[in-house]
């Protein structure tokens, strides 16, 4: 599908009550351009109201305008300056825009998060401060500019798995630079629950095991208990997930790192270069050396 001109879309949608630009190809009644894992950038007219029950944690950014948000039909917050705020899952949100407003909503996908990414430790979380009903940070001009660029990139369908992870890491880096440890704990405390900590354990340890059995043993769960919890959180059987992660990791190292083939082979748990070569041939259709040569040819 050829990308549709952004300005043309603005003209078509400008008289609508809600202008929603996402990167979605299957619109299903919503006029939009592109979509990736519920990441969306929206222009909302003054006086627009809506409500929803959050099924996933999200980071939201008010880039311009003003909005009033009522959390669980109780606590009301007005945001009228460039702000980053956290929308924890399993809560009800009532929104009302008080001016022409631009928002970006960025989902926090559990398997992409970790304590190290948040630059926090387990000990800090054990003594965490009780957070606010709607944790928020005012963002400076530099951060607002970067987030605005990110919102624009969604409109041009640039978002994919790699770009999402890059932007998530970039956001967390900006947060670390701007806010103290205590502020970060307060901000993120609503999302650091049992599910988060299990995901953090998986993301921290999966590279250091050879199979799911070893990972389950490290977790102190029974194999059946581990498999059940893993599938509930990651929405896929652990063995398939680990195979896919291994594939993505090897591909990334071969194409984007300067590690030697021997380094990659050892880090990924192959007992010999021959086994590593056979794996790449079966999965990628080429040996590690051939893949590296292709990278060099493509610049």
Structure description:
The protein is α+β, with helices and mostly antiparallel strands and 299 residues long. The chain is built from twelve helices and ten strands. The chain has a six-stranded antiparallel beta sheet, with helices on one face. It has a four-stranded antiparallel beta sheet with strand order 3-8-5-6, with no helix packed on it. The radius of gyration is 22 Å and the shape is globular.
Number of helices: 12
Distance between the termini: 27 Å
* Dominant shape: globular
Proportion of β residues?
A: 15-25%
- Mind describing the biggest β-sheet? 6 strands, antiparallel
Query: What share of the residues lie within helices?
Result: 40-55%
The number of distinct β-strands equals 10
| Uncertain stretches of 5 or more adjacent residues | 1-35
Which structural class do the helices and strands define? Answer: alpha+beta
Give the strand order, joined by hyphens, for the main sheet.
1-2-9-4-7-10
Element-level helix/strand string = HEEEEEEEEEHEHHHHHHHHHH
Rg from Cα: 22 Å
State mean pLDDT (0 to 100 scale): 77
